[in-house]
Amino acid sequence: MNHVFQELVEKYKPKIIDKREFRVVGISCNTTMMDKDIKVPNVVEEFHSSRIGEVKNRMDETISYGIFVDPPNFNPEKDEFTWIAGVEVTNDEDIPLDMMSITISAHQYAVLAFNPKTDDINPYQFLYQWFTREGYEEADLIGFEVYNPYKGVDSDYILHLPVKKIRRIIK
Q1: Are 65 and 84 in contact (CB under 8 A)?
Q2: Which site from 50, 106, 130, 169 is most exposed, i.e. has the minimal number of CB atoms within 10 Å?
């Protein structure tokens, strides 16, 4: 591991955690990597400013999520992915009009706390590099950011990327 990367690991302290299955209700958009910096903040702001109060059965009043759902064999150069701005619920009965529900499976996650106002790394690339060096690989097409609380598009968040340990065969 090179010296600069090791310094970043010591600064950001990424880790692997286990997380239970949970359900989120919110609004979504489809976007590409090229358009995400416009579309994602718009849907997140719309949800938090005018739609969040419509969600019933919320688990926690301060926590919200930004969830990405990549298609199989995702090609970031051209493929669309889905972004969901939402909150965790106890059940998804009585979903508001134009909202959706998604169940996030129980997984191990590589996690990283990130402050977009002060941190100068790409958290997704950094976390991916870290977990691959630690002997993990991607385990699912769904990952998420946790805001506690959401304070606008520059809110701190904890990035969660689903991972699984790579099984190595020793010969």
Answers
A1: yes
A2: 169
Number of domains in the chain: 1
Token code pair at residue 146? 């946790």
- Any domain includes 119: yes
**pTM: predicted TM-score of the whole model, two decimal places:** 0.93
For residue 169, give every residue at least 6 positions away whose Cβ sits within 8 Å of its Cβ, in sequence order, or none: none
Residue 91 belongs to a domain with what CATH number? 3.20.80.10
3-state SS, residue 2: coil
Angle at 139 between CA 137 and CA 140, to 5 degrees: 140
| Structural domain includes residue 168 | no
**59 vs 56: CA distance, rounded Å:** 9
What is the bridge-based pairing of β-strands 107-114 and 81-89?
Answer: unpaired
Domain that holds residue 63: 3-162
Q: What is the pLDDT of residues 45-76, one digit of tens each?
A: 999 999 999 999 999 999 999 999 999 999 99
Token pair in block for residue 92:
């998804």
Within-domain flag for 134: yes
